[in-house]
């Protein structure tokens, strides 16, 4: 695992937002690099507003990280389907990402080095999916 995946702390704050809605800012985010894939930021759940997130039925399994569950995000403009994933019970070597959330880069904005200055506004029930 060590040569294929690396997990390192990110020294600056990391903010996660979507459609002008801040989901959270973390000083404890991790940078996960897997092979030749782009790095993926993992943010502790305790630093993210979980209210707009809704667990979906979609799941996947990685031979190095374990099983991941997906979440959708309710926004003022609609729902971003399967925009987040989390390895709630990762394989032993990946214990650092337990209780963290990772975000699909094409669905959210991840900003390093500054805090989000907007406000969280969960989606009212019954809104439609955001086109992406």
Low-confidence stretches: 119-132
Averaged pLDDT: 84
Q: Number of DSSP helices?
A: 0
CATH superfamily annotation: Domain of unknown function (DUF427)
Summarize the main sheet. Answer: 7 strands, antiparallel
How many strands?
A: 10
List keywords for this structure.
Metal Binding Protein, Guanine Nucleotide Exchange Factor, Chain A, mainly beta, seven-stranded antiparallel sheet, single chain, three-stranded antiparallel sheet, 132 residues, disordered C terminus
Report on this structure.
With 132 residues, the protein is mostly beta strands. Helix content is 0%, strand content 48%. The protein has no helices and 10 strands. A 7-stranded antiparallel beta sheet has the order 1-4-5-9-8-7-6, with no helix packed on it. Strands 3-2-10 form a 3-stranded antiparallel beta sheet, with no helix packed on it. It is globular. The relative contact order is 0.26. Mean pLDDT is 84; it is low at 119-132.
Topology:
Blueprint: E1 5-9, E2 14-18, E3 21-26, E4 30-34, E5 40-44, E6 53-62, E7 66-75, E8 78-86, E9 100-103, E10 109-112
Antiparallel strand pairs: 1-4, 2-3, 2-10, 4-5, 5-9, 6-7, 7-8, 8-9
Short description:
With 132 residues, this protein is mainly beta. The chain has no helices and ten strands. It has one domain: Domain of unknown function (DUF427) (Metal Binding Protein, Guanine Nucleotide Exchange Factor, Chain A), CATH 2.170.150.40.
């Amino acid at each position: 695992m060590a040569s294929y995946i690396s997990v390192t702390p990110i020294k600056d704050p990391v903010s996660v937002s979507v459609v002008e809605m801040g989901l959270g800012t973390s000083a404890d985010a991790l940078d996960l690099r897997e092979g030749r894939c782009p790095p993926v930021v993992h943010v502790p759940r305790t630093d993210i507003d979980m209210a707009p997130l809704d667990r979906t039925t979609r799941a996947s399994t990685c031979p190095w990280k374990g099983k991941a569950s997906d979440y959708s995000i309710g926004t003022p403009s609609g729902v971003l389907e399967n925009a987040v994933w989390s390895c709630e019970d990762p394989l032993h070597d990946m214990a650092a990402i337990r209780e963290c959330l990772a975000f699909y880069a094409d669905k959210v904005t991840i900003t390093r080095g500054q805090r989000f200055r907007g406000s969280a506004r969960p989606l009212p029930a019954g809104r439609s999916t955001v086109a992406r």
